[in-house]
Amino acid sequence: MRRRNKLALSAAFCILALLIADQIPALQQRNKVSYLRGPYNEGFFYRHNQAFRISAAIHVAHARQHDVLELTPLDRHPEVDRDTDAGYMEAVLNPPRTEPTMEFFGPYAARGYFDLYRAIDWTHMHHEQTYDILSEKSIAWDDKKTWTDRAVRYYLEKLDIPRSPAPLDVTMRRAGVMMKPYTTLFRNYYPQSNNFFYAAHWWHPVIYEAIMIGGNGPNQDEMVRQTDQTYFSQVLKERPQRMLLSREIMPRYSRLSPESANIFDNLHMLHGIAYDILAYEGWTPAQKKAELERVIRAMSYHPGDEQLARKFNLPYPDMDPRTYADWMKGTHGDMNRIMEEMMQEMMPMMMPHGMDAAMHEKMMAQFRMKLTPGIQAGEIPGSILDAMKAMMPEMKVMPESIEPGAAPVQMIDMMLRGWQQKHGDMPNVGLISMQREADSGR
């Protein structure tokens, strides 16, 4: 009798488990991939431990932000933004000693958006590996590229959703997020937290530049120390007003490994898009999940992307990572240039009957306000889409532009053709010489 009861109870549990699984489509396989072994492993941790800990603190902030946005009503944004930013500053000033995964500090969002966390953690691993390679003294300077290329191949091949090695000019067009109802919500309504990440995305690339200029010897340690000092004394106090791209802020490393440089730009942009989606209150968690997974895959590696890896210019090839230059601080730069190009490319489809010059000027002025963190005087509330619809009620909006998980294919194709016409014949950026350590500082 007791045995029959146990069997009946076990059967009941199995049936219940199957019923629950059928009702929870968010259940996902959570297998991950480990890092690539090499003589450089943990080189950054041991040689530049303070910088390693700054990186860990930044990743704590990234993880926390997901749960903050998912659990906070948008109308509470002023005080939540202030308190969240204060917490991030505390983490940077008292950084952790180990590198956290996204799930550790953002457990709530991990329940439904695990592909987002896989994509982020995998690229953070690539950050660590490439820092390690440059930091490791036993790897000769002229062998750094060989080891870096090996790490890039591993990153692109061993997980199904690595960030693309194509430049952001292409992947942002491929993502097709401009007229989605969430775009710019995070930067407009959480400007302090947003600008903390803009400062973080200054720091991550300039550490590569510090090492590239410093070489393998003791000058590397001093360069990294001075760059960290600039971050604390200047950058966190007067934060950038845009996302700085690798080509602007680490030109030497971008020439050593354009693939890796683009991978980091694509990760940093994914952070911002994800925060916009999570801040948006018009969709259910399942709809947000569908949109996140669409964007993740649009900005992932596609076969052939490596052929585009060197399609960018270097606006500041001799930048000094120890100097927080004026051009780094404002809204004018390559990221916002890309966004403006995309807007201009979309307008013929959205306004097939055209618009007069005065309306076009007003529209672009409003658009630039949306690209600026915070809410500006005269700015229309909401996302870019909200502002454009308020200014131009007759604007044609494709259904796919506002539906979660749907790609506005015609608009994406139009923007990609626009990039090809403007930049397709751009010469590839030249690779940097690593024959002598002094060459890397050029």
Structure description:
- The protein has a domain at 43-336 and 427-441.
- It is 61% helix and 0% strand.
- It is built from 21 helices and no strands.
- It is globular, with a radius of gyration of 23 Å.
- The relative contact order is 0.13.
Blueprint (SSEs and pairs):
Elements (H helix, E strand, L loop, with lengths): L1 H22 L19 H5 L1 H23 L5 H17 L8 H4 L1 H4 L3 H22 L8 H14 L10 H8 L9 H5 L1 H24 L3 H18 L10 H4 L1 H6 L1 H22 L5 H14 L35 H17 L6 H15 L12 H8 L7 H4 L6 H15 L19
Helix pairs in contact: 3-4, 3-11, 3-15, 4-11, 7-8, 7-15, 9-17, 9-21, 11-12, 15-16, 17-21, 18-19
Catalogue the unreliable spans. Answer: 12-25
By secondary-structure content and strand pairing, the structural class works out as mainly alpha
The number of helices is 21
The arrangement of helices and strands along the chain is HHHHHHHHHHHHHHHHHHHHH
- Binned strand content: under 5%
Helix fraction by DSSP (H/I, runs of at least 4): 55-70%
State the distance separating the first and last CA atoms. Answer: 83 Å
Biggest sheet: strands, sense, closure?
none
Mean pLDDT: 92
Shape call: globular
Beta strands, count: 0
Radius of gyration: 23 Å
